[in-house]
Structure to design on (108 residues):
């Protein structure tokens, strides 16, 4: 009876050891996945912070340009006339580009 108990104990100990190794492998895999997720989150946060800074600088540039345009419009009659000529030039230029590109692409 003592030998039977010893064999059974060895078998259970062997199974325990196998399951312990399997569990250690799974824990290692989970740990590497957690580190990968952490690195990915860090990179995404860095990218988003960079985009936020870029948008902030773009916002500053646009607001200062808009301030100059407002100042140009409110400063006097001569500046308003120049602003109208510039706006008319931009509209004519865009129309000309559209017309030439439509003629160029319709000829194909």
């Amino acid at each position: 009876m003592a030998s039977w108990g010893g064999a059974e104990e060895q078998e259970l100990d062997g199974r325990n050891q196998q399951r312990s190794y399997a569990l250690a492998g799974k824990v290692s895999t989970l740990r590497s996945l957690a580190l990968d997720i952490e690195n990915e989150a860090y990179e995404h946060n860095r990218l988003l912070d960079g985009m936020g800074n870029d948008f902030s600088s773009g916002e500053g540039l646009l607001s200062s340009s808009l301030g100059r345009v407002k100042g140009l419009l409110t400063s006097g009659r001569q500046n308003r006339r120049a602003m109208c000529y510039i706006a008319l030039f931009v509209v004519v230029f865009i129309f000309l580009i559209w017309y030439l590109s439509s003629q160029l692409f319709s000829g194909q």
The chain has two helices and no strands. The first helix runs from residue 2 to 74.
